[in-house]
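TICKET: design request
STATUS: open
ATTACHED STRUCTURE:
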């Protein structure tokens, strides 16, 4: 028996990618393609809802799906820690609901964020430069926010990073004390550099997405896992085994 998937934001780039992967799979089928003018009620009857809309509407899409007891896979940016806390309370009140939020479906991006958390304990000066295509609405990106928050947690017992002159706009937006600089340019898919500064050296962890095919493995993994999801799970790193082999 195949899993029926409603794709909300089906007319966008990620919506087309999800639809293509679902249609090519033997395990899933497209139950509904929901665009900006279609009623959310069209998702009722699906087993899983995929939200790849816009930050401004994502919350209402997810809350509607949760209210119907559906499993939800979120690929939309803009889910801050405060918003996630509110979602956890909502999901906790609906026994059949489960939500997985993935800021970035690229395996390489997840690994880069994990490496950044490892390095964060050894450097006092850390900044992020992220670049996306000019049509990306939100900044900083969800991936950059996730990376900064992960760095902040890794440094919880140490304290914030050193970020002088943070009051100047050119110094970027601070998330968990980490300055983030966002580029929105033509010719770019996605790129993120996490730069660590130390005594007499710098370390740069760089990840670049060259094509949207980089997201395919992560999308299929997340679709598989969301079918049995409970509560709220954030990050592709929560779905893969990052422990080093013995």
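STATUS: resolved
RESOLUTION: sequence designed for all positions
ATTACHED SEQUENCE:
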């Amino acid at each position: 028996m195949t899993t029926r998937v409603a794709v909300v934001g089906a007319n966008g780039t990620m919506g087309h990618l999800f639809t293509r992967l679902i249609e090519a799979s033997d395990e899933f089928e497209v139950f509904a393609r929901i665009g900006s003018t279609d009623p959310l009620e069209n998702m009722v009857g699906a087993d899983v809802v995929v939200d790849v809309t816009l930050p401004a509407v994502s919350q209402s899409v997810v809350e509607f799906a949760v209210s119907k007891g559906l499993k939800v896979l979120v690929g939309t940016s803009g889910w801050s820690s405060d918003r996630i806390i509110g979602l956890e309370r909502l999901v906790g009140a609906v026994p059949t609901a489960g939500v997985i939020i993935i800021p970035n479906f690229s395996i390489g991006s997840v690994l880069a964020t994990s490496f950044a958390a490892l390095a964060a304990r050894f450097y006092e000066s850390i900044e992020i430069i992220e670049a996306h295509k000019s049509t990306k609405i939100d900044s900083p990106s969800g991936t950059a926010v996730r990376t900064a928050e992960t760095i902040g947690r890794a440094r919880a017992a140490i304290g914030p990073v050193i970020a002088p002159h943070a009051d100047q706009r050119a110094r970027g937006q601070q998330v968990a004390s980490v300055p983030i600089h966002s580029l929105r340019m033509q010719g770019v898919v996605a790129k993120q550099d996490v730069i660590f500064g130390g005594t007499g050296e710098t370390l740069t962890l760089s990840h670049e997405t060259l094509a949207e095919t980089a997201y395919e493995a992560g999308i299929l993994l997340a679709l598989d896992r969301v079918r049995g999801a409970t509560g709220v799970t954030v990050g592709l790193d929560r779905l893969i085994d990052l422990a080093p082999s013995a």
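CLOSING REMARK: Residues 55-67 form the longest helix (13 residues). The mean pLDDT is 95.
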